Amino acid sequence: MSWFSRVRNSLPFAAKRETADTLWLKCKSCEEMIFLQEYQDNQSVCPRCEHHGRIGARTRFEALFDQDSWEILDSPAAKEDPLKFRDSKRYTDRIKAARSANEFPDALTNARGTIDNQNAVIGVQDFAFMGGSMGMAVGNAFVAGTEAAIATKSAYILFTAAGGARMQEGILSLMQMPRATVAIQRMKAAGLPYIVVLTDPTTGGVTASYAMLGDVQIAEPGALIGFAGQRVIEQTIREKLPEGFQRAEYLLEHGMIDMVVHRHKMREQLSHIIDYTLAPKAVA
After folding, report:
1. Global pTM?
2. Which of 6, 90, 102, 118 is exposed most, by the fewest CB atoms within 10 A?
3. Domain range spanning residue 65?
4. Nearest 5°: phi and psi at 265?
5. Are 169 and 138 in contact, with CB atoms under 8 Å apart?
């Protein structure tokens, strides 16, 4: 070992991963370096350009529900590998890896609580879990969320984030689209609001089903929302797509959604919507 290596190893230098990688974050939009704690305290919104980063279920619940008012809801179990699917890895191995890296057992998690003392059930799709993909477990969780809302006469608020249906479950994943549609119809029959908040990204079969069937359609700023990818669309129609195509603001301008709401104002806006849609009907 050289004298330089001996001196370097004896000095109390912190490993690089313990400093830059954990204390700072580079914004994906403006590419500015942000102090990580500041970013997290700001609900993963860039304090420089207002870019909305992706956040998980627990962070959403803590930001939206009244303090100490909420609880995680269990979802019915689903068969994990019905098709014995394998590509470069076994599907069961992919699920195990996703579960080891995430807090909850699948991509959609429900919780029940209050927002400004009004009952609500919130479901959150987490893109960090296999791209938020829709499989049988997600379908079960969605149905369970609507049933919990009906049982408590509450609104069901769903935050979507997904790349589409889960390919490893084939046709069984696509069957979750009509299942979710039937569950939404039960919400409507019960006279309860189904509110959708589209977050970045919401694409594929999720967009083609429950993501666009809300009584009120909200989106976070800059969220990517669409069915097919932009490159596929351009190659199909052989035209250049307009600037901002498939972004939340473009969809609002063209009547596809009702409003774009900043993450910091989401709780207040949802409270107003719940209050309005669940207000007692006037007696004739």
Report:
1. 0.89
2. 6
3. 54-277
4. -105, 5
5. no
